[in-house]
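sry for the spam today, last one i promise. struct tokens for design, 331 residues
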């Protein structure tokens, strides 16, 4: 079975993520296959748009195959080629000169965000759940996510990056992560219609529906996560009311403190940077984080043993050394 299935039909280049048992977690071969298809179609006049879909009923893409990266780190092997190639593919997707439509009908996290949210049309169903959960494993939101998070409404990018908050369809539309809503039951027909050459805007309107209501109180999120420093935000979220704040506190309790501070810094800087600059910085800072013990420990606790009891160092936000954070993010 091929993990990436590509085809051209109705003027549409179709990339289907086809590793359902692993929730389409991206391997290096998958990254290369996606990039090769994009390169082939970029100048092909027979392809007028690109459609990205998933063969999994549960997920669009649960992220990168981070366990494989952990194995490379433990074995002392060079892990950087995966990230280099993945980020090149993310950038190609973002700069693609034709419409890129992602049908997000399920969980979409980490690396999956990089293969969807950079596109021109991000179509979500009521089953969509978008998150960048890297702080839970001692890493950072990458695949250009710092660029995306840095451009969301005030505080939302910091909330998502620092707490791994999961955003549903209504909120994704409200903050600009998604562009269109189509009910899950219509996603298959939308895909088929586009592969038959149907007009994009007409098809989205035809199969669209009423999206779930947004639930994030954006003014409250801004008042907390829009504050000027990570310590100020952490203090404020500790006192904030509402289910969203309670969830944030719960997720921060098991997040890697170093990753939380690094993520705050990169998201804030990203607002003034281009996507290529953000990807370059993610590569440099990410490599530093992967070499820290927190990364291997985080993956052990979350993905290998699944005990959800990571022993990070430093273990608390109060123990964070600002100088270490400055060195990790380059000042």
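last one done:
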């Amino acid at each position: 079975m091929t993990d990436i299935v590509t085809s051209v039909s109705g003027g549409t280049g179709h990339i289907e993520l086809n590793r359902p048992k692993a929730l389409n977690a991206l391997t290096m071969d998958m990254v290369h296959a996606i990039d090769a298809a994009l390169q082939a179609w970029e100048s092909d006049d027979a392809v007028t748009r690109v459609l990205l879909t998933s063969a999994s009923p549960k997920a669009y893409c649960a992220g990168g195959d981070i366990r494989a990266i952990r194995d490379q780190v433990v074995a002392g092997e060079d892990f950087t080629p995966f990230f280099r190639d993945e980020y090149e593919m993310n950038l190609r997707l973002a700069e693609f000169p034709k419409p890129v439509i992602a049908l997000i009908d399920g969980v979409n996290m980490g690396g999956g965000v990089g293969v969807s949210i950079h596109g021109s049309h991000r179509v979500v169903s009521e089953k969509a759940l978008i998150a960048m959960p890297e702080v839970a494993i001692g890493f950072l939101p990458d695949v250009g996510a710092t660029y995306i998070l840095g451009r969301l409404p005030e505080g939302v990018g910091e909330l998502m990056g620092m707490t791994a908050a999961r955003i549903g369809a209504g909120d994704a539309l409200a903050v600009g992560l998604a562009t269109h809503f189509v009910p899950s039951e219509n996603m298959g027909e939308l895909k088929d219609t586009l592969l038959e050459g149907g007009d994009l805007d007409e098809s989205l309107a035809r199969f669209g529906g009423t999206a779930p209501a947004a639930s994030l109180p954006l003014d409250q999120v801004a008042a907390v996560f829009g504050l000027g420093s990570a310590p100020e935000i952490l203090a404020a979220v500790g006192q904030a009311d509402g289910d969203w704040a309670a969830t944030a506190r719960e997720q921060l309790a098991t997040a890697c403190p170093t990753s939380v501070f690094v993520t705050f810094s990169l998201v804030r800087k990203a607002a003034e940077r281009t996507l290529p600059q953000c990807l370059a910085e993610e590569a440099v800072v990410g490599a530093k984080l992967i070499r820290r013990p927190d990364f291997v420990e985080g993956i052990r606790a979350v993905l290998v043993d699944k005990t959800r009891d990571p022993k990070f160092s430093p273990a608390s936000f109060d123990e964070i050394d600002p100088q270490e954070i400055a060195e990790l993010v380059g000042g």
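The first helix runs from residue 28 to 42. ok im logging off now
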